[in-house]
Amino acid sequence: MHLVPPVNWRKRLRAAVDRSGKKHSAIASEAGVDPTTLSRILNAHMRPTFDTVVSIAHAASETVGWLLDERGFSLSAEEQRQLRKVVRFLDETLLGSSASRRDHPEPNAVSATSVDIPRTYAVRGARLAFEASGDSMIGAGIADRDLLFVKPTRSMREAGGRVVVCRVDGAEYAKVLDARGGRIRLLSRNERYPPIEIAENDRLELIGIVVGRSGALP
Q1: Which of 23, 76, 110, 185 could potentially form a cystine with 195 if both were Cys, beta carbons 3.0 to 4.6 Å apart?
Q2: Strand pairing partners for 179?
């Protein structure tokens, strides 16, 4: 019998909080707990609910998958960000310019970004930040390299008709979610780009609703 050692999620959570560079008071505020509670959780003086752990992880810009050492999350969020920077650099170098990237069939893939979420959007539930790429959502006021502030949700009902960040077969997109009539489509806001039809064998993961960006949402 092969025994797998238990994951020390609390140790990983402490590391994520420290690595975020944010003050504990800021982490606590974004997670919706008071600083004393955060301190007790990090120091193993209380057993938190799973929802609280998720909120703290998101406030520290870390994934729950990495926190629990899930398969496919061997890289932390910071390591994933660094990897994306390298990939972007190679992409720009090999393609020659950002204009070439914008000619890619789906240019509005987005990548996670480590930034402080403005309080205006934090109070709306934003816990995650992404950077948009390309012009497929220009009609929604989202331009290339805009920062998107995202409220995490898994509810298709809540997100229907809204601008969302989602993952399809490992690629991340910012699109309008159209879930009607028994089918799911991801809509661009630029007539140059057709809808993305989600088939039964496509792996769709709803990450959250965009509640703000680096400028005012229209």
Answers
A1: 185
A2: 184
Cβ distance 66 to 76 under 8 Å?
A: yes
Q: Which residues pair with residue 172 across a beta bridge?
A: 167
Structural domains of the chain sorted by starting position, each given as residue range(s) with its CATH number in brackets: 9-67 (1.10.260.40), 101-213 (2.10.109.10)
Position 3 scores a pLDDT of: 40
Helices and strands (DSSP H and E) totals, the chain = 9, 8
Q: Environment class of residue 165 by beta-carbon count within 10 Å: exposed (0-12), middle (13-18) or buried (19+)?
A: buried
The Cα angle at residue 171 between residues 182 and 190, in degrees rounded to 5: 70
Query: Quick one: DSSP state of residue 194?
Result: -
> Has residue 109 got a pLDDT over 50?
yes
Q: Give the closest residue to 151 by CA, choosing from 164, 137, 140.
A: 164
Q: Which residue numbers are catalytic?
A: 136, 175
43-64: pLDDT as tens digits: 988 888 888 888 888 888 877 7
Say what the pLDDT of residue 1 is: 35
Six token digits for residue 203: 């792996």
